[in-house]
C-alpha cells in the first residue's frame, strides 16, 4: 500500500461529511487506503462516517471503546495505517486541492532524504465564509527545515491536516512522545530529528478554528504557560540534543507572557489613571489664583 489517509475524528458530526468529501475527491483515490480512527465520539459522527464510507473498498473504520485523548489516539491511529506514507486529516478540517495526496506522495518519492512534508493552509473561523491564507511563502515553491527550525517556529507546520509522514519515521520516534501532551508540534519535531522536512508552498487545506476547539478554547495566557511548562519535557524526550533551542524558545515565551501581563496591567491602570489626572486638574484649577486681566 503506497499511502494511508488517516481521518481522525472526535465529535465532528457537523463537519465530518465535508472532510470525507474532500478525501473522496482526491485524484487517484482508489490507489490509497482510508483509515478512520474515532476517539469514542458521543455524537453522530460515526453514523455519518459509516453512511459515507462503509461500503468503500480499502477502507477500515475504527472507534475506540473509550476516549484515549488526542495524544494517545494519534499513537494508536498511526499504528493502524499500512501505507508507506501517512496523510492526516482531522475531522473538522478539509482539503481543497484534488491533487494534494498525489502532490505530497510524489514529493517524498522524489526527495528520499525528507522524513515528511507539509504545506500552508487556509483558516476558517467558526461560521465565517472568509478563508485566510496562513504562513505561505509565495517567493519559494519549496522550503526545507530542520528540527531546530521547528522548535523556534511552531508555525512552520502548525496543523496535522497538512502533514504527510513516512510511516517508517513515525515508527522511530520515542514512545515517550505520547506520554505527554503532544500535538502536531512535538510529533513533527520528533520526526524531524531524523532528517529534513519539506514544505510545499501551496494552499491545499482548510483549518477550521472554533471557539470549542481543543486548542482554541485556551486563552493566550494559558497557551503560553502551557508551552513554557511542556517544553522541558519535549527537551527530555529528544534527549537534550536541541537543549539550546528549547532554552531560547522558553525565554521567548516568557517574554511574550511578560508583555501580556504588562499590557493587562497598563490597560487596567489607564482608566483609573485618567480619572485621577482629571480630578487633580480640577482641584488645582480651583486652588490656584485666577490670573488678573490686564487692560
Class inferred from helices and paired strands: alpha/beta
Instruction: Please work out how many helical segments DSSP would assign.
Output: 9
Order of the strands making up the biggest sheet: 3-2-1-4-10-6-11-9
Find the CATH superfamily of the largest domain. Answer: Spore Coat Polysaccharide Biosynthesis Protein SpsA, Chain A
What summary fits the major beta sheet? 8 strands, mixed
| Share of residues in strands | 15-25%
**Tally of structural domains:** 2
Overall shape: it is: globular
CATH class descriptor of the largest domain: Alpha Beta
Task: Round the Cα radius of gyration to an integer and report it.
Answer: 25 Å
Q: Give the overall pLDDT as a whole number.
A: 90
Q: Supply the CATH architecture of the largest domain.
A: Alpha-Beta Complex
Unreliable spans are: 272-277, 282-295
CATH topology group of the largest domain: Spore Coat Polysaccharide Biosynthesis Protein SpsA, Chain A
Helix content: 40-55%
Gap between N and C termini, in Å? 101 Å
Question: H/E series, N to C?
Answer: EHEHEHEEHEEEEHEHHEEHH
